[in-house]
Specification:
- With 235 residues, the protein is α+β, with helices and mostly antiparallel strands.
- It has two domains: 67 residues, Orthogonal Bundle (Arc Repressor Mutant, subunit A), CATH 1.10.10.10; 147 residues, GAF domain (Beta-Lactamase), CATH 3.30.450.
- The chain contains eight helices and eight strands; from the N terminus they run H-H-H-E-E-H-H-E-E-E-H-H-E-E-E-H.
- A hairpin with a 5-residue loop joins strand 1 and strand 2.
- 31% of the residues are buried.
Length: 235
């Protein structure tokens, strides 16, 4: 499993809740460390006293967001699943069968990326092919820095031209798809098609993760068709 970068990188200011901020940082650190952390390691990661870390963890445990295993290491818990289920539920429900068909047709890993902010997107869905002898595997939730990667460039290609934008974004507008190599996951080539924001959905991109650029160009028409299908299904 790849190690995720910090989810927010937020600088605490006077208008924020310090306690809530610390609790969210704990969840971020645990997402990066699936093997779990000790209470002391949590305190060090957050930059608080061990007693404060213990109180924060007790609160997160009460909400079933973290748990302690038999070795007293703190891990993420099942309460997060129910929270995650509601994130872009309509989009995920509609997109899942489209991604499943794309993954099986191309025998490659399909993904759906949504834009979160001006500077960041995030992998919302990942579908791996069932019968491929070899494919690329990664987890949903991975953040993507705009404009790096085919998905980010494909999203930008659905928007008006910006001064100083990457030439590859303009190329994606002309081609109808974006291709990038090694910008998000090393040794991986991505091909993506952007989907403009809708009445209830954010800007997004559907795409494939492949091993080489020839495969990306060969499967680009399949991605274009999948994006067209998904766009027609969205409100």
């Amino acid at each position: 499993m790849p190690e995720f970068p910090r989810l927010t990188g937020v600088e605490l200011d006077a208008g924020m809740s310090k306690t809530l901020h610390h609790g969210l940082v704990i969840l971020e650190e645990l997402a990066r460390r699936p093997e779990g952390l000790t209470v002391t390691e949590v305190a060090d990661a957050v930059g608080v006293h061990r007693t404060v870390a213990h109180r924060l963890l007790r609160t997160l445990e009460a909400h079933r967001l973290v748990r302690r295993d038999e070795h007293k290491r703190v891990r993420l818990s099942t309460g997060l699943v129910s929270l995650a289920e509601s994130v872009e539920h309509g989009l995920r429900t509609v997109a899942l069968p489209v991604l499943e068909r794309l993954a099986e047709t191309t025998q490659a890993t399909a993904h759906l990326v949504v834009r979160e902010t001006e500077t960041q997107a995030r992998v919302l869905l990942v579908v791996e092919p069932r019968r491929a002898p070899m494919h690329i595997a990664f987890q949903p939730g991975q953040p993507i820095e705009m404009p790096r990667g085919s998905a980010a460039m494909a999203i930008l290609a659905t928007e008006p031209v910006l001064d100083g934008e990457r030439p590859e974004v303009g190329q994606a507008r002309r081609d109808g798809y974006a291709i990038s190599a090694g910008e998000v996951v090393p040794s991986t080539v991505g091909v993506s098609v952007g989907i403009p924001s809708g009445r209830t959905t954010p800007s997004a991109a559907i795409g494939l993760s492949l091993f080489d650029e020839d495969s990306a160009r060969r499967t680009a028409p399949d991605v274009v068709e999948a994006a067209r299908e998904l766009r027609a299904l969205l409100p």
